Amino acid sequence: MTNPSFFPDERMWSYGFWKGKDGKGCYNTACLGFVQVSKEIPIVQPIDDLKPGEPAWWHCSIHQDKNTGNWWITRLISNPPHNVDIGYWPKELFNLFDNGADLAGVGGVVQASPFGSSPPMGDGVVR
């Protein structure tokens, strides 16, 4: 996400958003909800603030722990191969996912400032 009113600059940032019971939701760790567990990889960080040699894209898994019912986000890292649990959303946040889900979505939204038209979705590269 690039959003200078939400983040301190105009860089692209990773983020997490949840929407659960009663339509309530929150970004990152701005309110009670997402539980950050990784000390290595935060849920929110500038995309260009990566370690040398680290790709500028992420492969992640969102899955439900069968024992606790909590929803985990795990970063899948291929070189060297290892997975890092970033954190989880407690099952109590959601009222429709007691028995799992068939699909978890990841996406983006394009929205202009209040004074402009919406730009096209893309990677920021002018072609």
UniProtKB/TrEMBL annotation:
It comes from Arabis alpina. InterPro entries: Glutamic_endopeptidase, Neprosin. This is Neprosin PEP catalytic domain-containing protein. Residues 1-127 form the Neprosin PEP catalytic domain.
